[in-house]
Each structure stands twice: as structure tokens, then as C-alpha cells.
Structure prediction request, 295 residues.
Amino acid sequence: MKIGIDLGGTKTEGILIDENGKELNRKRIKTEKNYEGTINGIVSIVKEFENDFDDSYSVGIGMPGAVSVDSALVKNANSIWLNGKPLKKDLEKILSRNVNLENDANCFALSEAVDGAGKGKKVVFGVIIGTGVGGGIIIDKKVLQGRNNIGGEWGHITLPNRTEDEKKFNKKCYCKRDGCIETYLSGPGFAHCFNLRNNTNLDSYEIIKNHPKNENSKNALVKYVNHLARGLSIVVNILDPDVIVLGGGMSNVDYIYEAINEELIKFVFTDTFHTRVVKNVHGDSGGVRGAAWLG
Prediction:
């Protein structure tokens, strides 16, 4: 059996699954916003599962950010108290076993590749379009991390062929670059572009709720799908995956699936196109299930 931990900034969730992916137990606790408290929370979930089922299991953890290839320390985590810390080493010492630590987008992609919307496919690209934009590449049910442990980070590629209009109604990314895909396709990015263009102050949920009865909202979603297709075309032209699985809050917008596959083919360098963009199967459980499959 396998334990998966989804380490978030506000909550830490654990799941215990068997070899077939059947859920046996689940636990959610508040994430303590300090390093020692975070570790103690993870350890408490693992120990509770093992006490209840009287055994020792593999442990996989999904988290925002990554582990530096050179230093083995956490980097790029928005849970900033983890940055610069040897999280993997410290957990392995306390739990007396190997701990698999992976980016949360990679965990989502792995979950969908093993027994979700990408089941049975060789190459799966998992996409997170939520508060941020990330991605994970899975080949034969294995995470492709890359030499620098940034495989799948398509959110910080510049949106291709930006028009002057698209440059005007956009903001600089937090990474200090202009035109990152994340600034157009994340929920906050989508809302920011809309509000700049329409002199409003709405969040993404309110904008989407008005579709299709509101012309501005309708136009915004048409633009969104166009931006999504242009961004994904870069991934397709390089990786050529069997399937692209969408996750995160924006993936719940039904209109995306009505339009994205026909829009995407306009930008891909091929005469035939068999890759499909599909919605996830496991929803919010994708990250924690993928963490468990790391083991």
C-alpha cells in the first residue's frame, strides 16, 4: 500500500491507497506555516495511517516548488518557510525510509496518467490552470523531471505571437518577465486581463458565471481558449503527447472543451492531429493520488 501527501500552503492532505488505487483512508490537517510544524504534520499523518493499518508504507509528497538538483534544498515554493530547507533529508531521517518528493503539478499529471484521463497513454502532459499555471510530463507512467528539475514548466514561456492589444491588457509576471503564459491563463491572470480591458473589478468566477449572456464575458472566454491553444501548441510541437489533461480551477470551465481541440489544431505543425485536450478524472484528489503513486 502507498501513502500520498499533498502539501499545500493552508492544508496538508494525506491518502492511503492499495496497489489498485483503491482509497483506504484519508486525512486532512491545517498546514502549520513554519518548517518544524509542517514536518510534524506530515509525520503525524503517516504515523496515523500506519497505526490504523499496522504496517509501514511508501511515502510520496507533492508540493509547490521543487528540489534543487545541486543542493537538494527546496526552491521556488510559495510556502516560503520551506525554501532552502532539506525537506526530503529531514523526513527520511524521521520516518526511516525513502521519501519521494515531487512538484504538485507532476503529481497531478502522474495521477491522471496512471488511472485517470490519460490511462493507457504513453505520453501524458498534465496541465494546471488555477491560481498559477504549471505542468507535468509523464512517459510510461514515470515523471520526466528534466536535467534542471523544471520539466513541464510551460507557464513561464512567453505567449507566442502577442499582439499590441494583448501586450496592453496584461501585467508583468511575478517572475519579472513580460508576457508569461501564466499571466493570461491562470485564474487571477484571466481576471486581470478582463478587468483592465473592461474597467471592472471581477474575479474569474464572476466573469465565467456571466457567460454566455454577457458579451464581454463571452469574448473573454473566446480569447482565453485562443491563448490556451497558442500556449499548448508550443508543447505539442516539442513533446507531441498522446493526450493533454487539464486540471486546476479554470479546467472546470465547460466552454474550454467545446472549443479547444479545434482551436489548437490551427497552431500545430502537422497535417493530421490526434492529440486530444481533455478534462481530468480525479479532480482535486489528483495531486494527493499522484503523490501516492510516486512510491
